[in-house]
């Protein structure tokens, strides 16, 4: 019989708190991630944000709001080591709980197995990838290497235009580059600025970032599996499911059910249950983020480019020339994403687009009537904006993990052309 079941009401309160926390966390996380997936969710999200801000500004003094705003701005909009320290504390905290609570249980019930090698291997591999990602040059664009980096990619004429100059760095920006306001520098093949590594993610360190994500996911999944395994061994060894507990409401001994088992483990092994719960939620959230970046790797796209495509303003696409004078056709309708608005605008003005530089036969084509648009890529080299830089899986992987190998290929092509011209 479970002796710890005399205070059943308090135990149920703990369990309700645990599952309530999990439910709210999951609901908020899913809502935040998919709030822009449809106009309905987007409108609901904006209304909830506005309501929350009204409540906060009504209840919280202005001094506190200003202090919090300044702190948030410092942490997320400047280069600092705050989130790096937070990451280190989270990883160390999880591993300390694992070492103190989970490993002893595993070695008690399975003493002949090696339970420490694989977790340590993942931990040190992840730490090495993290160090390389944070410490490697992400691909800074300078006046010395701008021309060399510009030879790697052709400008698509829409997202990236040839010959455009960075107003801050005063250098000609290569295609797929972007000026990071936090780092105050242009980054070649810019993906995003990562607050956890306190650095930009670009051509130079994207491979280390992907290794960091994959090893972190492996570490989290392995921790969740081993911690769950320890709880299963405890339940099996103590034969908890075969025992019973005294129900204070009926005054009788009742068989142990799964909710009762979870309550009992939560009271006896709170840190283990908390660790398992946290790791399972992180598996879901970080798993989606990791799969997203693997998908970008496969199609040879960056987060920056995907964001630009998702919010492509129809009225500013000079190369796709929607009718700017027609507000009925070019304006984005309420609740409509800019990308969908662009597609609708393009369909309505297909005749005009064919006379200019537009989408045709699933590719960007330049008609004879259109004017050059900052040297856009040629028709034969283009498909559409979504897959403009997609050159096949193997080439895409090579481009990420061997980013500077393309420079050698470009140099060899130039040398060959110069030799051909001489002969």
TrEMBL record:
Q: Which residues form the Palmitoyltransferase DHHC domain?
A: 163-308
Keyword Kinase tagged: no
GO terms for CC? endoplasmic reticulum; Golgi apparatus; membrane
Which Enzyme Commission number(s) are on file for it? 2.3.1.225
The record's listing under InterPro entries reads: Palmitoyltrfase_DHHC, PFA4/ZDH16/20/ERF2-like
- Biological process according to GO: protein targeting to membrane
* GO molecular function annotations of the record: protein-cysteine S-palmitoyltransferase activity
> Which catalytic reaction applies to this protein?
L-cysteinyl-[protein] + hexadecanoyl-CoA = S-hexadecanoyl-L-cysteinyl-[protein] + CoA
Compositionally biased region (Polar residues): 367-379
Give the bilayer topology.
Answer: Multi-pass membrane protein
Keywords tagged on the record: Acyltransferase, Membrane, Transferase, Transmembrane, Transmembrane helix
Where do the segments described as Disordered lie? 363-382
The transmembrane segments are 14-36, 48-65, 85-109, 116-132, 206-225, 272-298
Cell compartments where the protein resides: Membrane
Main subcellular location of this protein, as a coarse class? membrane
Task: Output the superkingdom of the source species.
Answer: Eukaryota
Q: Which family does it belong to?
A: Belongs to the DHHC palmitoyltransferase family.
Q: Could you give the domain comment from the record? A: The DHHC domain is required for palmitoyltransferase activity.
Its recorded name reads Palmitoyltransferase
């Amino acid at each position: 019989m479970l002796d710890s079941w005399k205070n059943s009401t308090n135990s149920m309160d703990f369990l309700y708190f645990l599952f309530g926390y999990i439910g709210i966390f999951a609901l908020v996380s899913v809502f935040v991630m998919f709030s822009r997936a449809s106009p309905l969710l987007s409108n609901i999200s904006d209304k909830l944000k506005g309501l929350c801000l009204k409540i906060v500004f009504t209840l919280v003094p202005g001094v506190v709001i200003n202090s919090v705003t300044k702190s948030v701005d410092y942490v997320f909009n400047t280069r600092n080591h705050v989130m790096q320290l937070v990451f280190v504390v989270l990883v160390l905290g999880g591993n300390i709980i694992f070492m103190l609570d989970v490993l002893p249980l595993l070695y008690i019930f399975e003493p002949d197995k090696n339970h420490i090698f694989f977790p340590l291997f993942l931990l040190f591999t992840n730490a090495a990838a993290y160090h390389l990602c944070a410490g490697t040059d992400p691909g800074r664009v300078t006046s010395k290497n701008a021309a060399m980096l510009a030879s790697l990619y052709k400008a698509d004429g829409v997202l990236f235009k040839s010959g455009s100059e960075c107003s801050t760095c005063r250098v000609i920006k290569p295609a797929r580059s972007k000026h990071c306001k936090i780092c105050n520098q242009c980054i070649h093949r810019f993906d995003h600025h990562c607050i956890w590594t306190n650095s930009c993610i670009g051509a130079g360190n994207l491979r280390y970032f992907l290794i960091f994500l994959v090893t972190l996911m492996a570490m989290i999944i392995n921790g969740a599996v081993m911690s769950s395994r320890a709880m299963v061994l405890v339940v099996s060894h103590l034969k908890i499911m075969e025992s019973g507990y005294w129900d204070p409401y009926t005054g009788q001994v009742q068989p142990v059910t799964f909710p009762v088992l979870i309550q009992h483990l939560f009271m006896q092994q709170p840190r283990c249950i908390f660790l398992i719960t946290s790791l399972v939620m992180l598996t879901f959230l970080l798993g989606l983020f990791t799969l997203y970046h693997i998908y970008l790797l496969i199609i040879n796209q960056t987060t920056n480019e995907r964001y630009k495509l998702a919010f492509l303003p129809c009225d500013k696409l000079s190369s796709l020339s929607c009718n700017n004078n027609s507000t009925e056709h070019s304006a984005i309708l309420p609740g409509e994403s800019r990308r969908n608005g662009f597609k609708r605008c393009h369909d309505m003005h297909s005749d005009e687009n064919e006379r200019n530089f537009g989408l045709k036969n699933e590719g960007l084509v330049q008609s004879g009537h259109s004017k050059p648009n900052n040297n856009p890529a040629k028709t034969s080299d283009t498909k559409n904006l979504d897959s403009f830089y997609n050159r096949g899986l193997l080439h895409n992987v090579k481009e990420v993990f061997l980013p500077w190998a393309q420079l050698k290929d470009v140099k060899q092509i130039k040398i060959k052309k110069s030799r051909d011209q001489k002969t």
